Amino acid sequence: MTIGKNAFANCTKLKKVTVNGNKLKTIGKNAFSGDKKLKTINMKKVKSLKTVGKSAFKGISKKVTVKVPGAKKAAYKRLFKKGGIAANRIK
């Protein structure tokens, strides 16, 4: 499963994203870029994420909270950093 390149880019009213698909492997380049009100990303059920595209989360709220599975936290910190989210925002 993939969230494609520019899939939700510039959705100015998007505040929260919950992904329940445990087979999500890729978040594409600029997938959520420009979503200035995006503050919560819940991916607790996503256990197979392998790639987060460059700038996937560029321009979102600096106060964003990303919830990930505890067992994958270290790996996901590295992936989300590439996408533009600071490691300390991964919970």
Uncertain stretches of 5 or more adjacent residues: none
SSE run: EEEEEEH
What proportion of the residues form beta strands (DSSP E)?
Answer: 15-25%
Taken from the alpha-carbon principal axes, the silhouette is globular
Straight-line distance between termini: 23 Å
* Rounded mean pLDDT score: 94
User: Helicity, in percent?
Assistant: 10-25%
Main β-sheet, in a few words? 3 strands, parallel
Overall tally of domains? 1
Q: Could you explain the architecture of this structure?
A:
This is Leucine-rich repeat protein. The chain is α/β, with parallel strands linked by helices and 91 residues long. It has one domain. 12% of the residues lie in helices and 16% in strands. The strands form two sheets. It has a three-stranded parallel β-sheet with strand order 1-3-5. Strands 2-4-6 form a three-stranded parallel β-sheet, with no helix packed on it. The mean pLDDT is 94.
Report a brief summary of the structure.
The chain has 91 residues and is of the alpha/beta class. It is built from one helix and six strands, in the order ββββββα.
What labels describe this entry?
3-stranded parallel beta sheet, globular, 12% helix, 6 strands, 91 residues
Lay out the secondary structure.
Elements: E1 2-3, E2 16-18, E3 26-27, E4 40-42, E5 51-52, E6 65-67, H1 73-83
Parallel strand pairs: 1-3, 2-4, 3-5, 4-6
